[in-house]
């Protein structure tokens, strides 16, 4: 996470201020439950909410205390006591630091997930708009980077829409996975705190109680979360690379929007570099890489060790901030993408009708010509196009063996691009629902 | 995937025989649909099922053809034609190789997922049985590898049960993700084949039609699948490492079952090595690593490139076979795990009552002693235990300042292990439901 | 490692036969040293070499024994005894299984490294030949996939040559890293065996004694080895992707050699897919992924745990066999690569001289025109090329403001491609040495 | 890279101030060379050094310019011109941004490598000191976490010393790999700049000229660098995990130094958590993970794409800062490690002599008892120790069948710990040289 690739709202989730505020809320909600249970006075709980709620926590001060205590939660509680006064002794009763830390992480990750879901929604909206806009914009489909058969630019974007819809669903699952609360004490046995406290805090924070925490919330949840971010990043990479390909000098079927202020465009008008999508390719590599330490974090020793902590202090912000930035950047790219239908057409027609060779082959077979003969017929005409730059349709019409099997109308019909796009409606209905 | 770490049922899914059989079924189902649409004769479809269904495909022969054609699907179709005869020309009409390959992979992965789900079910059953058996077996909970507070061995296993229940749910999602069928032609536009064929084949094979395939099924699905396997592997690693720790010479609270035939046990009875769980640790590393190339496979070029293919030929079998083996091995380990409650008790009592120091501290605070004084009191008695091997309870009872705050009964009550386990029922209810 | 992507020589290194033969040699060399030290009779050592050397080990039989003993080395020794007779009791004295296993792995990995070094040498030879052949073949250099300035195809290949030369050097280091021998007993203290035995065996096998083994050879060595393979794989990926780009329909500056037998070429002559380099892209992902579990293997517990073993049983063959195959495949691709200088020229001239705009800009600046004015002048002429398809040179010559600063000769000179290639000799000298 | 796990000297390498200073030096050195070649006036070069050298670059100002130009190097040059005045037009002549960026990265990475080498040296010094101190401190060696045979604590540390010596050597290689300079223009052909400039700048900055750069320095170099850091991190993890194991409650053979200020120690004196080494375990996961995107960065498109840039902006600082911190932290841990020889002895004697069973077994065999009988004899006495807590030596001396084969002296001699440590000198000589 570096400023260059960060957006403020996601960064804010990981600020010390936010963290301390969440810590406070966990402690205060726990006090409510403890008061309800009669463990601490109701007045104390009220005071804690009032004075703590109004407090402006001083990050510097907390850091200062931590340097002595070498313990972040104790440092915070010490500082909180400075605001709350004597009733502060009722705070954190029967709890362990991890109760606060892990529940806080759950709150932060769910908030991060909510931002990411909104990011995906914005991306989906942009993809849908551009997909509908270019539903019928014919372009050559490519396998292996080589021309195959026609498709439409809208279908390309519809695929991306479907893919990010899946990513959205996966993120919903992943969000659910990490949305749990643990207030269960030193080894998760609720030895010093009633399970009711956990239930109460969970409810207030929109989380579910963790069925079995062992001081910590089990890290398979976080592993799944970060692995899901890695998959989403990979889908970003796919779309980014598609655009980079389309912007290649020789292809130029689409282009990232180029703001007038950007240097270099003037003297070399062809030199508009797909820097945003190249950047997204790199960011995807980063987000993906964070899945690995997250998976290694699962196997904590016994009821817990703290090896996961440094990892999460890094990848918590790094993965979510970077993915948030990447999704927003990709949305911007799609939203303003310059699309060049005329270049698509020009590229499509590059081989003067050869793109239809498969259809002609099929038609010959269906007209009763043997597979071998059909091949031979298509091949000898295709070769004239390929080697001498002839026009495929004209050559076929001039080939007596071909016209013996297929009428001119039938042959011409095989060169109809509409043939390739007649099921686009079906595809769009599948992706976007009833139109 | 190597024989040593493989089980036959999962291996069979990836055999050439299985693959060719699935290919045949895809082709034959497609023929049914094509016949229904009137594209090919109904009799032909019938013949194809009959003759192809009865055929015993010769893997050697197909390989031989492939060496010439350098194309596996064409090699198979050529071989299939040798059984079907003239009607074979109606097979594969309007389809592309990837229609067969990708749909086949979906069938293989769903079958693999079903085996893995059954594996997890078996593991869950073993975990539940042992968890209930040791629900009340008290053991020390450890954070940082250091004694913390008591818990029960059943709670440890209940956590594992809850964790693998989550893994199961994730795998169900992942299975759904890869259970799609694509019969959509060279670039996914259904140019030469009606979408109805895809719907029909999907239905017959228990798959859903892929909303937008582009010759290939998008690889974000497979990335999510293999990432999920990686997370499951990480949970296996966690439990494996727990057992390895418990089997350490100095701990010896549990032990892998040791078959009498195994060498080495006799002369060095202490030298029973947790080789199965060590092995599981290694296997987990492997399964996890396969998630990476799967994620890199997502960003195929344009409508498809074939870079994913070699990866999947390897990790398809490697990841599923290894995980299947690992789950089964772990189930065996749990099922027969030797558990030593007496050693657990001995370890727990290692520090002569010190494990209760936190409760005493809390009690003093609740009795009105200031936090600082409480610490001091607990500390000075704890130090006698730590440094001179005294008994913590006796020291406390002999400390006038302590007894001024707490009665003997109150102090003794703090040494009750039942205190720590009184919420075990709640935990078990959360995990296993109403008991 | 699957047959499709394997070559026999590398596969043979990992066969059980090879492994048992190496085990035998380790044991027999150790016997020589033990005999020299007077620990065992010299005759026994001689007998062991004679009878064991002549033995044809029966893999099935060893597997059978292992199924009972659950110990591979004991199974082998039992089988070996069947050949050697009574003197077999002098074999393996004071040694531990890992002495045999780890030293054997070192022998296998060094042999694998030697094959890989030969593979790289073959690749380097192919690259050098083609680089020299195309030293002066002008082609457009591309940054961001966009035309930049001219370079030569030979320079592209010289870069690859330099890169694989570095890979070679890294592999030499990596080979050195894993070429150690350990015959040091249960925890590496030489308790039951004199260090001289290790020195002797090491010398005989072309290895160095491991300074401190702890039953096992430390796994940082292997981690470095597999990480190095991962880097080499990444360089393969780079060159593979370069070729895939060059073979794109719209670019077509180079093409994988296409054997006449390959189907599909005839009817769609443009449809020659870069399947070999796509395949290499996938294989690179696999080899890279193996670096991860290798790094996780480093942190074995105490003097050793056996978690590394399953990983190495897989990645040992998988990584080396796959990389060997990939290097050989890449060499074949480079060796027979179809290179199309005329297409390179056509692509280069796509923008009618615009490629020289930077030089004109620089010339104007050097002629005293301010940077801003220079930009303006170049830009207004460039735009006519870009938007109206004019010729850049002609436009400049017709621009009075330009000709006021630069003479026609000076302007024309800026369109000399030789300008861009005049340092190619320097580059080649750096890479290939004195020419 | 987060402040909590950062040290100022390494952080400083990655500050904007340092970066701009290096950029300036590259530009100024290039000007010297250009002046020498007569391309720009000598006075201009002098002025640039004087005015630029004295300048205090304003990071805010550069950022501000970059927000308009969207180009960092141009922003810097614009700002530099504000100091240098009219002669600034001679700066950067014939160069491309990457010439500056990549050469700067090389300078930063070599400086980072130098710090890391110093870190390793400090760690080696600590390891050596403690290794010599505990050369003869006997401790039990453990395989599989189970007691095996005695070794010394010094040997453990000597292994770590040898391992980090290897890491040092690898880092030296990796440093060499990234220590190159590129001043070669838009596609690396030196079209607008003489190769002499590159040679001059390289020399001045302690780098070597990159044999073939293609606008960028090839990224296999950086991949190797970060992969090497990943291997070093894995060695850190190994030593960290060793210490975590030794500090386990039941083992307690060593302990991280515990500063008096740390909370929690007082009431639960057994609760000293190995938090530093747990933290190192997590940091190692992070550093290792960065190797992956670095490897993915290798396959840039054609002469360059910019996807590597975002990755390096992150992992450049993240990997080096984290590893620097981790090495320093580990050095501190080793330096002050509390080592408990008496606990080592207690653990070693846990099974009342059973640790010597292997030696007795061997002695019986060597005394002519058959392997089977030897096993049986050792086993029946071992079992009395294991099951009834008897003393192994006493049982053996009381076993007539044993004493028939071995004299009391011979048997007693097998219980001599000195037997296990008699080759420690050899090991130390191998690691630390002549003592």
Automatic annotation (TrEMBL), chains A, B, C, D:
Gene Ontology molecular function terms on file: lyase activity
EC number: 4.3.2.2
Protein name: Adenylosuccinate lyase
Residue ranges occupied by any Adenylosuccinate lyase C-terminal domain in the UniProt entry: 352-432
EC category name: lyase
PANTHER family reported in the protein's UniProt record: ADENYLOSUCCINATE LYASE
InterPro entries given in the database record: AdenyloSucc_lyase_C, Fumarase/histidase_N, Fumarate_lyase_CS, Fumarate_lyase_fam, Fumarate_lyase_N, L-Aspartase-like, Pur_lyase
């Amino acid at each position: 996470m570096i400023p260059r690739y960060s957006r403020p709202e996601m960064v804010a989730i990981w600020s010390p201020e936010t963290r301390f505020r969440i810590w406070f809320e966990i402690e205060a909600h726990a006090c409510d439950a403890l008061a309800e249970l009669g463990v601490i006075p109701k007045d104390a709980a009220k005071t804690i909410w009032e004075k703590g709620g109004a407090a402006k926590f001083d990050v510097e001060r907390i850091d200062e205390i931590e340097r002595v205590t070498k313990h972040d939660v104790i440092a915070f509680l010490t500082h909180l006591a400075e605001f709350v006064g004597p009733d502060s002794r009722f705070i954190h009763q029967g709890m362990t630091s991890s109760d606060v830390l892990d529940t806080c992480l759950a709150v932060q990750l769910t908030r991060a997930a909510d931002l990411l879901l909104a990011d995906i929604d914005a991306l989906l909206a942009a993809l849908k708009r551009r997909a509908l806009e270019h539903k019928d914009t014919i372009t050559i489909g490519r396998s292996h980077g080589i021309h195959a058969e026609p498709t439409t630019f809208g279908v390309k974007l519809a695929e991306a829409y479907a893919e990010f819809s899946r990513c959205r669903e996966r993120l919903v699952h992943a969000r659910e996975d990490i949305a749990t609360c643990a207030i269960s004490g030193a080894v998760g046995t609720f030895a010093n705190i009633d399970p009711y406290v956990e239930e109460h805090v969970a409810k207030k924070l929109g989380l579910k109680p963790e069925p079995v925490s062992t001081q910590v919330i089990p890290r398979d949840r976080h592993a799944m979360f970060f692995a899901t971010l890695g998959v989403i990043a990979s889908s970003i990479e796919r779309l980014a690379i598609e655009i980079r390909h389309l912007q290649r000098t020789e292809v130029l079927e689409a282009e990232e929007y180029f703001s007038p202020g950007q240097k270099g465009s003037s003297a070399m008008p062809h030199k508009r570099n797909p820097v945003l999508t190249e950047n997204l390719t790199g960011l995807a590599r980063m987000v993906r890489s964070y899945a690995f330490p997250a998976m290694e974090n699962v196997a904590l020793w016994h009821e817990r060790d703290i090896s996961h902590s440094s990892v999460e202090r890094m990848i918590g912000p790094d993965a979510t901030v970077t993915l948030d930035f990447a999704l927003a950047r990709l949305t911007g790219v799609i939203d303003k993408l310059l699309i060049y239908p005329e270049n698509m057409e020009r590229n499509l027609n590059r081989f003067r009708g050869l793109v239809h060779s498969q259809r002609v082959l099929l038609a010959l077979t269906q007209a009763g010509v043997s597979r071998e003969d059909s091949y031979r017929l298509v091949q000898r005409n295709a070769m004239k196009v390929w080697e001498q730059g002839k026009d495929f349709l004209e050559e076929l019409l001039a080939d007596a063996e071909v016209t013996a099997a297929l009428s001119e109308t039938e042959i011409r019909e095989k060169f109809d691009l509409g043939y390739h796009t007649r099921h686009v409606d079906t595809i769009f209905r599948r992706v976007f629902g009833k139109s």
